[in-house]
């Protein structure tokens, strides 16, 4: 009898934690999007095409963008924790969680180091771009590995995750080949792909407590 009475309460606790993780992830994505547009409007004017996110974070909008990126880091950690709570079997799901935590660590390093080759710190340009390269490689695995375990749950999630993974795989390398006047736009396309996956993962977690 005791086990019967306590089981529903424990279930509600687990669901509430998953819901909070999803809300935190979704909110962090919205905040970083608003921060980018706010910085472009207030400080950089119409710099969304020509100015990369890194350039804005190194300029007058550093406080806004760095804060938003750190909030995003917290949101990614929350998403990883929420996905971990789903307890899906297999090594791919665990790899997705580890990769998300690595992505969070890289973004935190980019925001906290706050150097973009402006000469303040020796070799800072190389350090920054090494982080960007690592981010590109590691995040590629996230949607592709997650898609495998999402297929039995919802075919739309499976297809969406694969599509975003393929789009990221194509858009990432292109960022380093486009003219300077357009690199900001392509970087935002790539960032948008990542945010779309994170938003999808957040909504997935938000809906879990309802069993849908």
TrEMBL record:
It comes from the Bacteria. InterPro entries: DUF998. The chain crosses the membrane at residues 19-43, 63-83, 95-113, 125-145, 157-176, 188-206. It comes from Roseitalea porphyridii. It holds the Pfam family DUF998. This is DUF998 domain-containing protein. Keywords: Membrane, Transmembrane, Transmembrane helix.
């Amino acid at each position: 009898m005791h086990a019967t009475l306590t089981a529903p309460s424990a279930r509600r606790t687990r669901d509430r934690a998953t819901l909070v993780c999803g809300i935190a992830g979704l909110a962090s994505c919205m905040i970083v999007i608003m921060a980018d547009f706010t910085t472009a409007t207030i400080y950089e004017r119409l710099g969304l095409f020509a100015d990369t996110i890194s350039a804005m974070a190194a300029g007058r909008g550093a406080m806004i963008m760095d804060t938003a990126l750190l909030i995003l880091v917290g949101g990614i950690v929350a998403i990883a924790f929420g996905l971990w709570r789903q307890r899906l079997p297999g090594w791919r799901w665990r790899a997705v969680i580890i990769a998300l935590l690595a992505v969070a660590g890289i973004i935190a390093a980019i925001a906290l180091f706050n150097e973009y080759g402006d000469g303040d710190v020796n070799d800072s340009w190389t350090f920054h771009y090494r982080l960007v390269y690592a981010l590109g490689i590691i995040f590629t695995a996230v949607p592709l590995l997650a898609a495998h375990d999402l297929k039995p749950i919802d075919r739309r999630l499976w297809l969406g995750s694969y599509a975003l993974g393929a789009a990221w795989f194509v858009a990432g390398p292109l960022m380093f080949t486009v003219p300077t006047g357009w690199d900001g736009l392509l970087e935002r396309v790539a960032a948008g792909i990542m945010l779309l996956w994170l938003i999808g993962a957040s909504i997935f977690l938000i809906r879990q407590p309802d069993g849908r």
